[in-house]
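Our consortium's second objective concerns turning raw sequence data into structural hypotheses that experimental partners can test. To show how far this objective has progressed, the report includes one record in full. It was chosen at random from the queue rather than selected for favorable results. The single chain below, 193 residues long, was entered without modification.
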Amino acid sequence: MVAPERWSNMGSVEVPVSLVLLVEDNPKDAQFVKSALEARHMSVRVAKDSGQAHMTMQMHQPDFIIIDAILPGDESGFELCERIRRREEKIPILFLSAIDMDDARDLAERVGADGYLTKPVTPEQLMTKIQEIADAAWRRDHADEEESGEERIRFACTCGKRFRVSSAHRGKSLTCPQCGEPLIVPKRSTIST
């Protein structure tokens, strides 16, 4: 495993997030978050409770999940997070809740969340937190690949945004988070380090 201090010297990775699952029962909050993310070229699927969240995940595997702590039905956001985390270790999860208590933050961390934000939040705060969490999750999940010397594919969008992804992503599509342009990961690096 790569030492955390080594990662801190690598700069921002800026991992692209294309599909977000938002689990939020308040229509106004859901619309606010959905609009903020779609303005940054992300697709958003909204689930109003844990049942819809599980069904949505079966049909569309998200890159990122945002969960409200208090949800209608039998399962809270904390229980939903814990259940998702048992099945999916790598998908980053952010709590976005009106509950501003240390106990809630601690519980979110214990059930596997990668971050916690309290409402109200600005689109900029939300995007910054999403990017921080996505980058940290990518670093965590790819540390072994880096240490083993696995090849990384380096390429750039026409807008100038640079990417560095695992060779396992060759031929896969993504959307540039900067300009919204659809991209295909090339078979080999097109830019040098």
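The partners drew two points from this record. Residues 1-13 have pLDDT under 50 and may be disordered. The chain has two domains: 19-140, 151-193. Both points have been shared with the crystallography group to help prioritize constructs.
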